[in-house]
Amino acid sequence: MDWAIHVANVLILCSFLVSNVTSLRVLSITAGVFFGLYFLTRAPPAYGPVCWNVLFGLVNSVKLIRIWRQRRKIPLSEDEIFLREHIFPKLFPVDIRSLSSQAHIQDLSSNALKIESNRLYFVLQGSIDLDNQNISKGSFLGIGNYLKPDQSSAVEVSSTDARCFSWTHTDIQNWTNKDKQRKNQLIFAFSQDLLNRSAQESAS
What we know:
Blueprint: H1 2-17, H2 21-40, H3 47-71, H4 78-86, H5 93-100, E1 104-107, E2 113-115, E3 119-125, E4 128-130, E5 133-135, E6 140-141, H6 143-147, E7 155-157, E8 163-168, H7 169-177, H8 180-203
Antiparallel strand pairs: 1-8, 2-7, 3-6, 3-8, 4-5
Helix pairs in contact: 1-2, 2-3, 4-5, 7-8
């Protein structure tokens, strides 16, 4: 069955040409099957290469399961959908659920609210007045303290209708440390947020 090794090598060659990680791993697993078939039909059978291909196949299978778990579709709440569409469009629903599950939802009344320096806030509804700035829906509050932590005391802000997600800095850092893409998306979101505020201030 010499043809089996040729099929396996063609599949490996194809795996070098694809950019999709899922397709690459599927091709690699399939090639391993044909490699195994070739070595098992030798006289005598070469069990060493077969064992190695079984190991490679198991590793790729585990990776495929992880990819599927990360990319699977799950129903998101309205707040989670808003967070994904406006801040993290390139992340998967599972990433958004992981982030929102660590958040505290704060409904603000007309009373002043103390913004803690060790927390990051995201406005889901309404707006917040802070130091002559109006932090509107879809904006972050506490970016500066997150990027450059300090020991300053809480700051009082006012709002009549705002609702926010809030996270401790530790929760956000643990979330971003699990995936480089998460960290990149968060930094990009911070940059866009700060640029939008600068543009609004210049316009006013």
